[in-house]
Amino acid sequence: KFSDRLNKVASFIPRGTFFADIGSDHAYLPCSICLQDITAQAIVGEVNEGPLQRARETVSDNHLTDRIDVRLGDGLDILQPGEVNAVVIAGMGGSLIQSILEKGRLRLKGVSRIVAQPNNDERNVRSWFSSNGYVITNEVIVEENGFLYEIITGDKQAEGQTLSERQQLFGPRLLEHKSNLFRKKWERELMKRRRIIDQMQRAKAPDVSKIAIFEKESLWIKEVLE
Ligand code: SAM
């Protein structure tokens, strides 16, 4: 069975899109999209040889070599400006996604949509979106193998979007609905912060400013879950 997480990511790529999947590993996502939509085309980027080989194999096993181009390289370096309309970056830490976007900023010319699925530090992605004219048009949480993943879609729009610190942490669209998975995620995050605060307080020289940040966030979480 294909991954629920990647299926959901795929649902944010409109039919007929020419998109890039950066850090694709097996290339399951672009192959699944191109098998379902004969008008879709993709460029796959991988920085590591092993995953690159796996991507090439999946693409050729599925007879998609004419529509999926697999390239070796770091982040967005593999793209020429204007080549694709959308970019997917899934299954990495939020700060790595942010740094890939920042480093490749000038290669995003013509990219009207970015779909990001950070495994953590989601706020780094949101903060990059809001500083670079991408408005968050959709956010969802999916559960797979006991993990909760956020999928964040940003669309380039002239007016842009400013986000408060809370919106960056929780997600402006996720805050509008507060789904069951959203509650589950933030109940877990609250427990995590309680544990961390507890550990930090027992340290020989507690870092009071760090503790204060976790306490402030814990308060926000409690308010949001009310
Ligand atoms: N995107 C797939 C998914 O969501 O299932 C695979 C995620 S996998 C955990 C992360 C992949 O990103 C690895 O194959 C790794 O080689 C690749 N990667 C990490 N840093 C990268 C970078 N700077 N540029 C391109 N690929 C990168």
Compute the separation of the termini in Å: 37 Å
Q: How many strand segments?
A: 7
Low-confidence stretches: none
Number of helices, counting only DSSP H or I runs of 4 residues or more: 9
| Mass-distribution shape | elongated
**SSE pattern:** HEHEHEEHEHEEHHHH
CATH class of the largest domain: Alpha Beta
**CATH evolutionary superfamily of the largest domain:** Vaccinia Virus protein VP39
Count of discrete domains: 2
- Helix percent reads 40-55%
The largest sheet, given as strand count, sense and whether it forms a barrel, is: 7 strands, mixed
Approximate strand percentage: 15-25%
**Overall pLDDT score:** 97
Keywords: Methyltransferase, Transferase
Protein name: SAM-dependent methyltransferase
GO molecular function: tRNA (adenine(22)-N1)-methyltransferase activity
GO biological process, one term: methylation
Account of the protein in words:
- The mean pLDDT is 97.
- With 226 residues, the chain is α/β, with parallel strands linked by helices.
- The protein has a 7-stranded mixed β-sheet, with helices on both faces.
- The chain contains 9 helices and 7 strands; from the N terminus they run αβαβαββαβαββαααα.
- The chain has 2 domains: 159 residues, Vaccinia Virus protein VP39 (Rossmann fold, 3-Layer(aba) Sandwich), CATH 3.40.50.150; 45 residues.
- α8 packs antiparallel against α9.
- It is elongated and about 60 Å long.
- The structure holds S-adenosylmethionine (SAM).
- The site of S-adenosylmethionine has 16 residues, from β2 and β4.
Features:
alpha/beta, 2 domains, seven-stranded mixed β-sheet, 7 strands, 44% helix, elongated, binds S-adenosylmethionine, SAM-dependent_MTases_sf, SAM-dependent methyltransferase
